[in-house]
Design a protein that fits this description.
The protein is an alpha/beta fold. It folds into two domains: about 120 residues, no CATH class; about 120 residues, Rossmann fold. The strands form two sheets. Strands 1, 2, 3, 4, 5, 6 and 7 form a seven-stranded antiparallel β-sheet that branches. It has a five-stranded parallel β-sheet with strand order 9-8-10-11-12, with helices on both faces. Helix 1 runs antiparallel to helix 3.
């Protein structure tokens, strides 16, 4: 049995040479000894773009980490076993600036679970909470968006900010390349159908029939529709009998919609977000 845990939060002052001794302590209390002859033993350290090392033993590995002024990443595999028995446990740890990955395998699943719990507490490891989709919301939505907008100077700046925000969230964002008179061109229809979410940016007191038509088409294709609407805009989607999710923002401040927009994305449980 093997169990893997990935962590994104740990103490910035975590002393790895001392912390690794916890693996020894856990194993010794359960009658397991260090197994230096095992081919599962391995150590690799990357100090920077130009220097790396592969220590031959656990002690050399700890010594190298302790003496290093800094390191970029490392990985190691440490085997322990009960004397004169094939039963034991193997700890594998990978450190990267963005995460700590711990893989524990062995002959007894209860011991593996206990080992993960012990190391998580001993090292102070944790993760951000996983967003829980709200009941009644769409499920299995991917991080793909079609951004509907007006094609003029007034919409250019807020549309660029909104696009940058969604790009930073790692959405695949598609847009039409230019304004076309109704009906919606087949090329735009295919772009909308390809994305799981339609976000319409509504700016100003003017005719918004183009955006309303796009939103209606998206909803007709079972896409999730969100309208980001500037306060004071002449926007009334109910003329087509539709009641879309709306997020309002003050004039010229589309960034004021970003928190509510992020909350909306999280409530959908979007894959990868």
């Amino acid at each position: 049995m093997k169990r893997n845990h990935l962590y994104h939060i740990w103490p910035r002052d975590l002393d790895f040479p001392s912390a690794f001794r916890a693996f020894e302590g856990f194993s010794l209390k359960r009658g397991m000894e260090w197994n230096p002859d095992s081919y599962y033993q391995s150590y690799d350290i990357t100090f920077n773009e130009y220097e790396s090392a592969s220590p031959n033993s656990f002690d050399e590995f700890l010594h190298a980490i302790k003496l290093a002024s800094g390191f970029k990443k490392f990985s190691c595999s440490m085997p322990f076993r009960i004397p004169k028995s094939l039963k034991g446990i193997i700890f594998k740890v990978t450190y990267d600036p963005h995460y700590i990955w711990i893989d524990i395998g062995g002959s007894d699943d209860d011991t593996i679970v206990a080992a993960h719990n012990f190391i998580r507490k001993e090292w102070g490891l944790s993760n951000p909470p996983i967003p829980v989709p709200q009941e009644g919301r769409p499920r299995n939505i991917q991080a793909t968006i079609f951004l509907g907008k007006h094609f003029d100077l007034k919409s250019e700046a807020p549309a660029k900010k909104l696009r940058q925000f969604m790009d930073l969230l790692r959405f695949d964002v598609q847009e039409a390349d230019e304004y076309r008179a109704l009906p919606i061109p087949e090329k735009v229809q295919k772009l909308i159908e390809r994305q799981d979410i339609y976000v319409g940016l509504v700016i100003g007191q003017r005719e918004h029939s183009w955006l309303i038509a796009e939103a209606a088409f998206a909803q007709g294709k079972s896409r999730h529709v969100i309208m980001v609407v500037e306060e004071g805009s002449t926007f009334n989607p109910t003329i087509q009998g539709q009641d879309y999710e709306q997020i309002l923002f003050p004039p010229d401040l589309v960034e004021k919609s970003f928190i509510k927009l992020l909350q909306e994305f999280r409530s959908l449980g979007i894959s990868g977000l």
